[in-house]
């Protein structure tokens, strides 16, 4: 069975999108937060959990990332038109802006530098743009 009888989603392509998307998000987030923003997080260390405490919640963080990718993959399939990479770019721009603004919206509530909030916005935007492109390359007619 290739398509789900309830949703009509191509099951093999959906789970391929999910697994490859999850690997992309994991790597992207590690590069962005674990490498590029490490100094900014260190400078604001009083705001975050300690490393030991964060590691204790690692499985929850991974489950949230997986749920995030599954949700975005499902939304992509429900609006799928089969128009190619441009469709993935449009998806990525639209949802990247929505989610990027939401990330930036944390700035008024946390005493973080404006530059960190700006990088969160840009980082989220480009992460979702990347996912949109990946999804369009995998989920095609």
Quick structural overview:
It is built from six helices and no strands. The protein has helices at residues 11-36, 38-43, 51-56, 58-78, 85-104, 114-138. The model has no long low-confidence stretch (mean pLDDT 94).
Keywords for this entry:
single chain; elongated; 141 residues; 6 helices; 0% strand; mainly alpha
Helix and strand layout, with pairings?
Elements: H1 11-36, H2 38-43, H3 51-56, H4 58-78, H5 85-104, H6 114-138
Helix pairs in contact: 1-4, 1-6, 5-6
Structure, described:
The protein has 141 residues and is mainly alpha-helical. The chain has one domain. Helix content is 74%, strand content 0%. The chain has helices spanning 11-36, 38-43, 51-56, 58-78, 85-104, 114-138. The longest helix is centred in the first third of the chain and has 26 residues, at 11-36. The chain is elongated, with a radius of gyration of 17 Å. The model has no long low-confidence stretch (mean pLDDT 94).
Task: Work out the oligomeric state of the chains in this entry.
Answer: single chain
**What's the count of strands?**
0
- Number of helices in the DSSP assignment: 6
Helix content: over 70%
Structurally, how many domains make up the residues? 1
In N-to-C order, the SSE pattern is HHHHHH
Report the biggest beta sheet as strand number plus sense, adding barrel if it closes: none
Output the radius of gyration: 17 Å
Classification by helices and strands? mainly alpha
Give the overall shape: elongated
Mean pLDDT: 94
Strand coverage percent: under 5%
Q: Low-confidence parts, pLDDT < 50 over ≥5 residues?
A: none
Q: Give the termini distance in whole angstroms.
A: 16 Å
């Amino acid at each position: 069975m290739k398509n789900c009888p309830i949703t009509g989603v191509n099951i093999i392509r959906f789970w391929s999108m999910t697994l490859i998307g999850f690997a992309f998000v994991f790597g992207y987030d590690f590069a962005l937060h674990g490498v590029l923003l490490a100094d900014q997080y260190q400078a604001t260390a009083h705001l975050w959990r300690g490393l030991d405490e964060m590691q204790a919640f690692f499985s929850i963080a991974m489950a949230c990332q997986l749920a995030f990718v599954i949700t975005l993959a499902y939304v992509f399939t429900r609006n799928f038109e089969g128009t190619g990479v441009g469709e993935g770019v449009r998806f990525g721009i639209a949802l990247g802006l929505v989610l990027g603004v939401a990330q930036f919206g944390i700035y008024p509530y946390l005493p973080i530098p404006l530059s960190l909030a700006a990088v969160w916005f840009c980082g989220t935007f480009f992460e979702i743009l990347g996912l949109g492109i990946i999804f369009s390359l995998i989920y095609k007619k």
